[in-house]
């Protein structure tokens, strides 16, 4: 029995109500197994595939066991990246919605420590953090360990690989003996088993039985190509399969930045994330991706672990990962919570041996495929066009137009010819728009007022700029009258401005990648939805 109803678990009504609201109908196998085991006081190593709800598997029992009367931290969850700490904290907050007086807090580097200390002082039961910042709070005495009953390592294996072992051991030594220690990941190498022996008691290894490490609902493909064909391969596959959201992994920060610029220049809504950006920049990029303001996230492995974004339909390994484990985690950003997904791997020269290792390690089938040709893309576009036309015809009253066409038929054309001509003309127009977009000549529909185009601008800190500043800076740089610049809403650290469509490129060209002189304003991406 792998999946059961949540109410068959021994959990509170508060949790039942929360999971129902979150749309969970049945438990996932790791939840079926881990929730009772943790409630029963066991130490566990939990291994289950990517996207199968490991967060709730440890989150639910932790929330159940917290003492609301005690305002001291009772659980620490360590995560390898800041983004993941934030995300796990958000998931726990949703699960804790009806658990009044249970508080969770993410703590991570790059965010004001003062603010975190204030929040800790107010009383928090579950602290979710990256090792460095958690250690910092422990040293300062702002995070006390005396009441810690639960210690969780999410993505346990990578925490060891990243050299956090000393920090982890220091924390474990100072947490009271009676604690429960829980390790989770989709991949559990031997190093974790050693750590388990050393720090866990009567540990249970919960391995959700699967012959494959990867999720079956992800279709995996590889393309044997030359290095300089990678970009073409990527854009063709993107154009053909049109994923809602996609993540493209490269092995270095430099590659990520270069590819991002190339994609943006071709009109794709892309942005980059890697460890070289500061926390504000990283938060902003992740925020834009989660909200669909950008559709393609170009990333290093900082985004490979744990990140859960709905509707990521495709993952690309632009460079194959160095490590076979990472393959599992990277492609696991799609095909989550039972959804389907695609993984595309670019294989250059000797990469083919690495690909074989990956296939062997994951026990999964990666199908050989070819870069789609221009005519494949046209055929797909034709199919999409026909579908849209069908839907349109079913839902619109064509009365007046039918009369007009009848007139045309009376003259010299057949109905077939007229339909074909209209279709050709209409598809050519779409094509033109696409080409313009791809060459960066057109902004497409950016949701701006008619005749205007909306530009997305990174403004650093909100309190440093006013709409007047922004208009002044753009006008100053472009020589455009300030009156032409409109609709400014300032959000946390970005803003949208609208400029006349024909001026859009000029404004972008002047400002692209450059801070507007003397201000914190930087035009970051050309378009938004
Ligand atoms: N029982 C459930 N039914 C439906 N959806 C669920 C269930 N449990 C969790 N989810 C959702 O599934 C998604 C993936 O969950 P989660 O991020 O915990 O996966 P994970 O196993 O930790 O994956 P990874 O190995 O990538 O970290 C989340 O959006 C989560 O809210
Ligand atoms: Mg996870």
From TrEMBL:
Entry EC number(s): 3.6.4.13
Keyword list, A-Z: ATP-binding, Cytoplasm, Helicase, Hydrolase, Nucleotide-binding, Stress response
GO biological process, one term: response to cold
SMART domains in UniProt: DEXDc, HELICc
GO cellular component term, pick one: cytosol
Catalysis performed (reactions): ATP + H2O = ADP + phosphate + H(+)
GO molecular function: ATP binding; hydrolase activity; RNA helicase activity; RNA strand annealing activity
Motif (Q motif): 4-32
CDD domains for the chain: DEADc, RRM_DbpA, SF2_C_DEAD
Start and end residues of each DEAD-box RNA helicase Q domain: 4-32
Domain named Helicase C-terminal: residues: 217-379
Helicase ATP-binding domain span: 35-206
Main enzyme class: hydrolase
Region (Disordered): 427-449
Family: Belongs to the DEAD box helicase family.
PANTHER family: ATP-DEPENDENT RNA HELICASE DEAD, DEAD-BOX ATP-DEPENDENT RNA HELICASE 47, MITOCHONDRIAL
Protein name per Swiss-Prot or TrEMBL: ATP-dependent RNA helicase CshA
């Amino acid at each position: 029995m792998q999946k059961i109803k949540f109410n068959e678990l021994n959990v509170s009504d508060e949790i039942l109500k929360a999971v129902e609201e979150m749309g969970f109908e049945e438990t996932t196998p790791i939840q079926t197994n881990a929730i009772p085991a943790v409630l029963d006081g066991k130490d566990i190593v939990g291994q289950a595939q990517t996207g199968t709800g490991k967060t709730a598997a440890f989150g639910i029992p932790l929330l159940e066991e917290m003492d609301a009367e005690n305002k001291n931290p009772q659980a620490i969850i360590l995560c390898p990246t800041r983004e993941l700490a934030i995300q796990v904290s958000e998931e726990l907050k949703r699960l804790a919605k009806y658990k009044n007086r249970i508080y969770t807090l993410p703590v991570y580097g790059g965010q004001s420590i003062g603010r975190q200390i204030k929040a800790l002082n107010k009383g928090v039961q579950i602290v979710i953090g990256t090792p460095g910042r958690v250690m910092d709070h422990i040293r300062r005495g702002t995070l006390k360990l005396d009441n810690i009953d639960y210690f969780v390592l999410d993505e346990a294996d990578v925490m060891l690989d990243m050299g956090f072992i000393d920090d982890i051991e220091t924390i474990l030594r100072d947490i009271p003996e009676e604690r429960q220690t829980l390790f989770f990941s989709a991949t559990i190498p031997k190093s974790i088993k050693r750590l388990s022996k050393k720090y866990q008691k009567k540990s249970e290894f919960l391995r959700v039985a699967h012959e494959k490490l990867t999720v079956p609902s992800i279709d995996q493909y590889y393309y044997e190509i030359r290095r300089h064909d990678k970009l073409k391969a990527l854009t063709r596959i993107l154009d053909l399969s049109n994923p809602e959201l996609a993540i493209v992994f490269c092995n270095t920060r430099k590659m990520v930045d270069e590819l991002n610029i190339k994609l943006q220049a071709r009109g794709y809504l892309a942005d980059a994330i890697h460890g070289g950006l500061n926390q504000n920049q990283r938060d902003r990029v992740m925020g834009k991706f989660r909200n669909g303001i950008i559709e393609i996230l170009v990333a290093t492995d900082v985004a490979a672990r744990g990140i859960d974004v709905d509707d990521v339909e495709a993952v690309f390994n632009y460079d194959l990962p160095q490590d076979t484990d990472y393959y599992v985690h990277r492609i696991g950003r799609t095909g989550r919570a039972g959804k389907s997904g695609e993984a595309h791997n670019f294989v250059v020269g000797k990469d083919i041996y690495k690909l074989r290792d990956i296939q062997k390690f994951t026990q999964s089938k990666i199908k050989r495929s070819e870069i789609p040709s221009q005519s494949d893309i046209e055929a797909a576009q034709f199919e999409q066009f026909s579908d849209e036309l069908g839907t349109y015809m079913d839902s619109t009253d064509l009365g007046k137009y039918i009369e007009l066409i009848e007139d045309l038929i009376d003259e010299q054309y057949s109905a077939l010819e007229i339909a074909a001509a209209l279709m050709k003309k209409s598809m050519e127009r779409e094509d033109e728009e696409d080409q313009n977009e791809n060459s960066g000549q057109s902004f497409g529909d950016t949701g701006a007022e008619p005749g205007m185009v909306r530009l997305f601008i990174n403004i650093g800190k909100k309190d440093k700029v006013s709409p007047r500043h922004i208009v002044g800076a753009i006008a100053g740089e472009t020589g455009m009258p300030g009156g032409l610049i409109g609709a400014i809403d300032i959000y946390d650290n970005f803003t949208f401005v609208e400029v006349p469509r024909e001026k859009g490129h000029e404004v972008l060209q002047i400002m692209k990648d450059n801070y507007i002189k003397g201000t914190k304003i930087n035009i970051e991406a050309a378009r938004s939805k």
